Amino acid sequence: MPADSDSTFEEPFADIGARxxxxxxxxxxxxxxxxxxxxDAGFGIPTEFAPSENIREHTGExxxxxxVVGIGNPHxxxxxxxxxxxxxxxxxxxxxxxxxxxxxxxxxxxVSLPKVLERVDLAPSDPESSEAWQxxxxxxxxGVAEAFETLNASEVxxxxxxxxxxx
Length: 167
Fold this sequence. Notes:
five-stranded antiparallel β-sheet, 40% helix
């Protein structure tokens, strides 16, 4: 995704549950707020890394501060793993990215792992008719929606942040 504050998800991302918002705060504060919002919405944080730091360490090149916060909901994850014969594990955990796009502006974005799995044909053959698959989408989707609502209601939410898309 481009690192400028005018970027928004293009139409092709709408069908994979893309969500984004902007926070007017420092990078570390935004990361803490993302962790808290997703934890409060029922997710665990099994992994986290900073690709910008890794790239700087190995290449000496500077990128805007970027943190990937890996989120997981064990109930949804179990269903997704079962429904994909374990193949979804190659993409676990789901990720929320916090990317600095201005001095005190952070872009927070996420795409729905189950929706991505549908796109790459790792989902059940007919995900629309799979009750279990729809349950996983509902569990994860409602938690993501709740977390983004929390971020958008915070005192650091950018006033002109794009409205989150529906899953």
